């Protein structure tokens, strides 16, 4: 993919925004700690399962068929315009995606106080939690990492970069699911906005120069693989001496300090296809 150098645009195209569902006919009766708007009377809000700077995540259940969703609730009073634009961009991107290893959005609702994202719910934990007290076998790691790379390959084929790949944003049960697209962007240009999680940021992000977001995703995937293999971050951008075997070559390519030499998602998947069942 050839990227053009340009200032990053955080706005959302009008045509895309017009496709975002808005179901507001009555004002919501909310408070800042426990929003339960009347426009969502088709759903029953249940336990809170997550809390971030701008949003909380709660289980909700359809009163019609009992289906459970994860409802991500953003309170507009906490959002500036740039953050609000980012949420609209996240919704627009999620609505384009249909992949077994990527979180699925079922609906989005908005009123004058909150934005609500209805996401698929599964009884799973993050890879950070799952690997906290256990060491995975190399075969398990190969399978998990291949699923992650298939998700990234799919995103990149649509010119979408996640920009915050990390263990905490990967759910795991029977298979992995990549979540939290708050920093995601769809672009054919270099990016200038530094975002993500510091320990997963590629070296080129740290010098605050325009960067290829797709190459930065590959670096973050390499950090994830390093953690799965040895339980720690690469030190000084170098891989652990204890890592060997077929995954070593992939890891070295993902964590190449030169972004132009870093493998693409297609190349990583092709390599994984050769070793997954060895």
TrEMBL record:
It comes from the Eukaryota. GO terms for biological process: signal transduction. Its EC number is 2.7.11.1. GO terms for molecular function: ATP binding; protein serine/threonine kinase activity. It is an enzyme of class 2 (transferase). It catalyses: L-seryl-[protein] + ATP = O-phospho-L-seryl-[protein] + ADP + H(+); L-threonyl-[protein] + ATP = O-phospho-L-threonyl-[protein] + ADP + H(+). The keyword Cell membrane does not apply. Monomer. PANTHER family: CALCIUM/CALMODULIN-DEPENDENT PROTEIN KINASE KINASE-RELATED (PTHR43895), SERINE_THREONINE-PROTEIN KINASE CHK1 (PTHR43895:SF32). It comes from Paramecium tetraurelia. InterPro entries: Kinase-like_dom_sf, Prot_kinase_dom, Protein_kinase_ATP_BS, Ser/Thr_kinase_AS. Keywords: ATP-binding, Kinase, Nucleotide-binding, Serine/threonine-protein kinase, Transferase. ATP binds at residue 72. This is non-specific serine/threonine protein kinase. Gene3D superfamilies: Transferase(Phosphotransferase) domain 1 (1.10.510.10). Residues 43-278 form the Protein kinase domain. Belongs to the protein kinase superfamily.
